[in-house]
Amino acid sequence: MTEAKDYRELAKSFGGVAAEYDRARPSYPDELFDELERLAGRSLKGARVLDVGAGTGISTRLLAGRGADVVAVEPNDGMGAQFLASSPGLPLVRGTGDELPFHDHSADLVTYAQAFHWTRAERSVPEAIRVLRPGGALATWWNVKDSEVRWVRAMGERLGAALPGVYHGYGKVNEIVGHLAPYGLEVGTAVLRWDRRVTVDHVITDLTSRSYLASLTPERREPLLAVEREALLAEFPDGWVVEPYVLDLTVARTPR
Question: What's the pTM value of the predicted model, to 2 decimals?
Answer without folding.
Answer: 0.92
